[in-house]
Amino acid sequence: MDENLKRQQEFMFMNSRLQLERQILMQNQMRERQMAMQIAWTREFLKYFGAFYGLAAVALTAGSIKKKKPGLLLPVIPLTFILVYQYDMGYGTLLQRMKGEAENILDTESTLLDMPKGVITFETIEKARRSQSKFFIEK
């Protein structure tokens, strides 16, 4: 009887461990797919924005030369920053730098990540549920 209970507990432990490993792998694959979609979106946006940037730069340069007003070139400056950021996000090292900074925050500034009023507990959820139930019952 004791042996049977022990085997059953071991089976339950291994089963829950396997389930947890599968959940972790699934969440990681979901995260990877979301990141891949974000990078793909950025690369696609870069194509359209690059075409807009090229057209705007040529038009503003031609307009500033024709009207002899160098101030017409000012919009090219912020557009250049946007173009470079999008390129860095889609094809550069921005994601690696962001990952490094995130790891640094986790290692050295973890207090910034604390939730207001602490971690949510079963008791806080139940308290909110009970107060909401009273609210709906009263109406």
Automatic annotation (TrEMBL):
<feature type="transmembrane region" description="Helical">
    <location>
        <begin position="71"/>
        <end position="89"/>
    </location>
</feature>
<feature type="transmembrane region" description="Helical">
    <location>
        <begin position="45"/>
        <end position="65"/>
    </location>
</feature>
<dbReference type="InterPro" id="IPR019319">
    <property type="entry name" value="Plg-R(KT)"/>
</dbReference>
<protein>
    <submittedName>
        <fullName>Plasminogen receptor with a C-terminal lysine</fullName>
    </submittedName>
</protein>
<keyword id="KW-0472">Membrane</keyword>
<keyword id="KW-0812">Transmembrane</keyword>
<dbReference type="GO" id="GO:0005886">
    <property type="term" value="C:plasma membrane"/>
</dbReference>
<keyword id="KW-1133">Transmembrane helix</keyword>
<dbReference type="Pfam" id="PF10166">
    <property type="entry name" value="DUF2368"/>
</dbReference>
<dbReference type="GO" id="GO:0010756">
    <property type="term" value="P:positive regulation of plasminogen activation"/>
</dbReference>
